[in-house]
């Protein structure tokens, strides 16, 4: 199974386990419904920013999605230096998914999201 198909399957499973429709998750993540559908079907490769938005909507670790998408190597995830506050929050193994989401919300309330810049 390629990275895109594996990522899509994982996202669909997470969405369904959270009892979210495709439309509900797309609204939570701030992306279009058709784009999310294409990601779930393994037709589109989402950017790290989109993965982060999806992780927030699903209350899962962005790092997990990065690994599923092939952006981050699972075996060396903890060894790579972080380049931003968002990446540091996503990579911290001591934080729960809910804590990550809360920290990202607080941080973004102070500095704004990347799409606002």
From TrEMBL:
Give residue ranges for domain HTH cro/C1-type.
Answer: 11-65
Among the GO molecular function terms of this UniProt record, one is: DNA-binding transcription factor activity
Q: Which GO terms describe its cellular component?
A: cytosol
> Keywords, A to Z?
DNA-binding
Per its record, how is this protein called by name? Answer: XRE family transcriptional regulator
> Which SUPFAM superfamilies does the UniProt entry name for this protein?
lambda repressor-like DNA-binding domains
Does the keyword field hold Nucleotide-binding? no
Look up the domain of life of the source: Bacteria
User: Entry's Pfam families?
Assistant: HTH_3 (PF01381)
Indicate whether DNA-binding appears among the record's keywords.
Answer: yes
């Amino acid at each position: 199974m390629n990275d895109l198909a594996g990522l899509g399957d994982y996202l669909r499973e997470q969405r369904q386990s959270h009892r979210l429709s495709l439309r509900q998750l797309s609204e939570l993540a701030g992306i279009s419904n058709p784009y999310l559908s294409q990601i779930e079907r393994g037709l589109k490769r989402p950017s790290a920013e989109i993965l982060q938005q999806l992780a927030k909507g699903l209350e899962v670790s962005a790092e997990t999605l990065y690994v599923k998408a092939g952006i981050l190597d699972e075996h060396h995830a903890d060894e790579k230096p972080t380049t931003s506050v968002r990446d540091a929050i996503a990579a911290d193994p001591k934080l729960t998914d809910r804590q990550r989401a809360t920290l990202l919300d607080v941080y973004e309330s102070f500095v704004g999201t990347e799409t606002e810049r």
